[in-house]
Amino acid sequence: MFNPSPLPVASRAELVAALEHADAPSLALTLAHLTGDPSVLPALGGGGSWLTTPQGGIPPRERARLRSLAAEVLAPGGAAERAGDALPEPGLLRALTRWALGEDTTALLPMIAEDLAGARTDPKRPRWRRQPGSRLSVAIVGAGMSGLLAAHRLAQAEVPFEIYEMGEDVGGTWQHNDYPGCRTDVPSQLYHYSFAARTDWPDHFCEREVVQGYFRDFAKEFRLVEHIRFRTEVTEAAWDEEEALWRLRMRTPEGEREARAAVLVCATGQLCRPSFPAIPGRDSFAGLSLHSARWEPGTDLTGRRVALIGTGASAAQIVPAIAGRTARLSVFQRTAPWLRPTPHYRAPVPEAERWLLEHVPFYREWQRFWLFAPGIGERGVLDGWIVDPGHPPTERAVSARNEALRAALLASMTAQVADDPELLARVVPDYPVGAKRVLRDDGSWLRTLRRPDVRLVTERISGIAPDAVLTADGERHEVDAIVWATGFRASEFMAPMRITGRGGTELSESWNGDARAYLGLTVPGFPNFFLLYGPNTNLAGQGGSIFYFSECGTTYLLDALRVLQESGARSAEVRGGIHDHYNAWVDQGNALRPWGFSGTTSWLRNAHGRSAQNWPYSAAEYWRLTRGFNPEEYLIR
Ligand code: N01
């Protein structure tokens, strides 16, 4: 099902027709690879702005040249046939990746080569196996993206494991986020496990059902389902020092259960529990009340007067999907979102492009790489996010590059509502680009806000009455239903689970609302305990995918288990100094990013004002830090 091998090119006519739909940078990289000649790469345009330049800014004339060359290279007897199945040799790989990233990639080559080879050889798989008599066993909490991945890697290493999942299905956040219009905002060509690619994504950014189906297929294909205990909520986990294992208590429909395992992996992520704002009178509302992350399937809003609270990523998907069905829709905005032009956001992948993905050797890999490229190094997304004290940073922009991004996004928004300056003034954010998640925009957000049956309310909400949302200007907005698109309790990692480590220390008490971990993975005082998608492992921009970070974390986890087994020790616990030093460095980075610098509200900062969510550096940096477990950083007992 995953990673189908490229099929032989069928006919020249088919090829020429399909090439019309090729993504120019991905095709250029493919051709340079297959011919071994980096000189076929055209100049990139658009000043390198990853955010706003489609097709890498390659002009139409150059695109036509690439298509003609492709027809030759991919013809029977052409260079593609001679290229074989190998990745480019290091010199060529350096030239290709340097072109895409705009920086020297010498130090990044192992990471890039590993990802490029992912779908063919899965180089990240564990190379060791559990030995007979080993005491290794693992309890995983959560059957979402990270939990399934950890389970698969453990199965490869023949380490016994069980997954405890409070829901009825796999997919984590995708299981619960079943609201109208739900789809990824990371391209599907990137939003998957590197070793389990698909060529047949129906859309560039797939709908929730497709993503959920991917996780179901994955769990089935790799026989993980039989290890999952559904409807099982872990309520407590306590480290038993004498036995050197974790004791778990859980709630199931059949009653309380207990389990034990040498290692505990919490893969509950950051976007698990819905957040409801503390608005006076919230519980008094007598109509239908729905949260985006706990949508009731089959809910019909047709003909109802609806208030939707929030203007984040979830709202941006729900609002266009329900407007027109509702009798009236009032959208309550506290802070406006920045919008990133993505004209193909809701578009299907044309049949012809799918044909290329299936038939052209390495096109799929290079497309994934091209989509990932802005997040890999220092010159992509990060370049626009770094606060430049010399600029000097303000709530408008934090650097000249960030100011340029602002100008580009502002121009795109202005073009959409140029004839309505009053609306424009209300939808343009008053904080730097990057301080909150930048939303994908195919025009539908602002178009929907302009509908006669939709109203954007920017007055502060002062309360909720049984039949209305009340605003500070004294207006009653009478409604039949409220949709809370108000996000997640992202700072409360793993809540309300009670996790007790060495000496009876309780994790959420010791964190006190300010979660920290070494590499987002391990915590002092909590031996044999690993988090996946833990503190400071969230991605800042749209230049990568959280799948990548989970893969890095899982590689580290498996390597830690290998070291434990080989050393004959019973536990590993990160040293406090290592943890503290690392977190100081992460905080330093986050303080110099828009989400750390800006005073705007967002889930990217906790109640202490610290960003416990985002990773402030490059994906390559996280890869470097997590590619191997260093026992010297741990108390190994
Ligand atoms: O939640 P959010 P989300 N009065 O926290 C507003 C991922 N995701 O569910 O900005 C009025 O971003 C709040 O206002 P403000 C993605 O990582 C991915 O939309 O704090 N408004 C904000 O507008 C995303 O970043 C996909 O001033 C109030 C909104 O509620 C993350 O999930 C799709 C308020 C909450 O926005 C969270 O996104 C969806 C109040 N009292 C989500 N309190 C994909 O496509 C809060 N708000 C993969």
TrEMBL record:
Pfam families assigned to the protein according to its UniProt record, in alphabetical order: FMO-like
Q: Does the keyword Oxidoreductase apply?
A: yes
Q: What is its EC number?
A: 1.14.13.-
Q: Which family does it belong to?
A: Belongs to the FAD-binding monooxygenase family.
Enzyme class per UniProt: oxidoreductase
Q: Which UniProt keywords apply?
A: FAD, Flavoprotein, Oxidoreductase
Q: Which organism is it from?
A: Streptomyces boetiae
User: Keyword Oxidoreductase on this protein?
Assistant: yes
Protein name per the record: NAD(P)/FAD-dependent oxidoreductase
The molecular function terms in GO held by this entry are: oxidoreductase activity
